[in-house]
Amino acid sequence: MVETKKISKRQLILDEAAKLFKDRGYGGTSMRDLAGQVGMEAASMYNHIKAKDEILASICFRISDLYISQLGEISATNTSYGDKIKALIRLHIRLMVEDGPAVSVANHDWKYLPEPKLGEFKQARKTYEKGFAALIEAGIAAGEFQPVNVSVALFTILSAVRWIELWYRPGRDLSAEELEANIITVLLHGLERK
Amino acid sequence: MVETKKISKRQLILDEAAKLFKDRGYGGTSMRDLAGQVGMEAASMYNHIKAKDEILASICFRISDLYISQLGEISATNTSYGDKIKALIRLHIRLMVEDGPAVSVANHDWKYLPEPKLGEFKQARKTYEKGFAALIEAGIAAGEFQPVNVSVALFTILSAVRWIELWYRPGRDLSAEELEANIITVLLHGLERK
């Protein structure tokens, strides 16, 4: 019971930290700011979390673990390669819409991780990119996809889903579902009519 | 004769400044660093250029003027909308490959422009995006493009060409021409075979 409460308090601190890091930058956020935001004394917050870089690591690795485990599940499904790539595009968009601040921190502030965490995070990102690239490659080999350069296809897809953060505001003119459908149309089927 | 020499010296200073801003950041580059890089005394550099923000503005507006004038030329050509979009994608890639540091400064460091230059630059960017969007919209109206959301198509294309800076190194595995052809395939024709 006590343990559960401690874990959820910790999660609350991590969630508020992600919002502050996103709004003020990692360097611009102090542990004191964070305690104020969470409504705790700095001293009692240290019962839950020891240091700012521990918070950063928790946020970054929660997101990278999520991407990697979802990639594993999607790769293992018995569907076409097109459907797997579509599922990954939807995953990126849903995470951005539902877990925006943490995704933003994992995208931008990972570079402030201290070693060896920094190296581990870069490795995790590489693992994800390689797994994503392998699906594109397999789709080309299966004759499902056009014989494009795999890196160009990979980074075109990743840049499209990453840039959403900068221009998309949920619910204004376009729902998350419409956003997904339109990005999938452009990337999988192309802008030109056949 | 003297005037020509002054202009080209000025251009040399601007080119070296773009490289320094890209490598060390705008804030991390001093006029003294720049004078050292160009091989001039700081005092004599001030004959050509008065302040760091004047340099930044010259770089940013040279790039935005170039994009806007090229967009005008491409829009006016008697070709299909698909060919116009392809020409714009090629323009982005060529500028990035041939004029990389200045493009990078215009993409990232414009936010350090002082007002009213900052507002003017944002306006120029909006003008460009609107013109690009108008071509997509006209292509949809003409039945040449799929009936996608114009903002999604616009930002998917712009993010793809902007992210190239982060992952592409000219000449390694992929020439600039191959890069152009592959990005055009993904964005205009789609990853999936029809």
From TrEMBL, chains A, B:
Residues 7-67 form the HTH tetR-type domain. PROSITE patterns: HTH_TETR_2. Residues 30-49 bind DNA. The keyword DNA-binding applies. The lineage of its organism: Bacteria, Pseudomonadati, Bacteroidota, Cytophagia, Cytophagales. Pfam families: TetR_C_24 (PF17932), TetR_N (PF00440). InterPro entries: Homeodomain-like_sf, HTH-type_TetR-like_transc_reg, HTH_TetR, KstR2_TetR_C, Tet_transcr_reg_TetR-rel_C_sf. Gene3D superfamilies: Homeodomain-like, Tetracycline Repressor, domain 2. Keywords: DNA-binding, Repressor, Transcription, Transcription regulation. GO terms for molecular function: DNA-binding transcription factor activity; transcription cis-regulatory region binding. This is HTH tetR-type domain-containing protein.
